[in-house]
Amino acid sequence: MTPPWRTVVLSPHFDDAALSVAALVRRLPRPLTVVTVFGGPPPEGSPVSWWDATCGFSSAAEAYACRRAEDARACALLEAEQTLLPNPDGPYGATGPLRGLGALLAGLTADTTVLVPLGTNQPDHERVRHQALAALDRPDAARTLVYADLPYTGHLPEWATDGASDALAASQKWGLAYQELTRHHPCSVAHDVRLDDEQWAAKRAAVLCHASQLAPLAADHGSLAARSGPLRAELAWTLDARPGPGA
Prior knowledge:
The chain is 35% helix and 16% strand. The chain is α/β, with parallel strands linked by helices. Residues 243-247 have low confidence and may be disordered. Pfam families: PIG-L.
């Protein structure tokens, strides 16, 4: 059976959709689902990862149960369905193709929009992008948007300005994923959302659902939840068709 969704947001981890596109998803057609690609449980008996230990968890199983529940609350605020693929989070998983992603994308129709993470300085996100774009490279595929994953891309000095894309094209610190993307897929800005106070309050509520992640994220990314911080704007590009031979 063809899934009923009009919009599919690929969120590598449980918090990425809220951090990156909480305001944008409110503009997109429903029904909408947030697909957590690394949404599977860790193998039984796995020792707690360094990240989950830093978040305060005593075991891998406890971390998974808590993060899945946090994500359910965030999805409810985003008016989105929660969909989980069976891949364990990075420290608990394996290399190779991500399970379930290709089959899910193959079942979508051309009137669906798929949001794919850019993968700025984040290997798990980049892995999702590579596999998703390969699966969507067919004439009847769903429409694809690539979104700037936050807070990573939001550290660009020109973030939340008209020059953000051009700055990514030149930045050797924050723009390598964008540069790789545009070498293979010409892009145009499809959505540039600079959050007003109402949008910011709604986004903050969704982000705060992922409370277990905020302390270590702030340690790595500074003023994560500040009104003027890296989450204050959201950006997504559409992939332009390349001209055919002789065009």
